[in-house]
Amino acid sequence: MAKNNKSGSRSKDIDIKYLAIRERVKENKVAIEHVSTELMIADPLTKGIPPKNFKDHVVQMGLGSTM
């Protein structure tokens, strides 16, 4: 979908959301930017990361004091 702009019948909801975002990008209402893993404070909730990074993210999310 990202490469060839084609989709199947099972992705209608995704198609609508994708096209809406695509329109807003063309209208310069939305900008797509890369965000480094170090800046994604919810990262520990999506994948395994080293313990030090996990502790840093927990503090940034306000879920604990400095560990």
Determine the N-to-C terminus distance: 42 Å
Largest sheet: none
Strand portion, in percent?
under 5%
Give the SSE order as H and E letters.
HH
Count the helices. How many?
2
Oligomerization: single chain
Helix content: 25-40%
Q: What's the gist of this structure?
A:
Helix content is 37%, strand content 0%. It is an all-alpha fold.
List the topology elements.
Layout: H1 12-26, H2 51-60
Describe this structure in words.
The chain is an all-alpha fold. It has a domain at 35-66. Helices cover 37% and strands 0% of the residues. It has 2 helices and no strands. The protein has helices at residues 12-26, 51-60. It is elongated. The mean pLDDT is 79.
Task: Describe the structure using short key phrases.
67 residues, mainly alpha, 2 helices
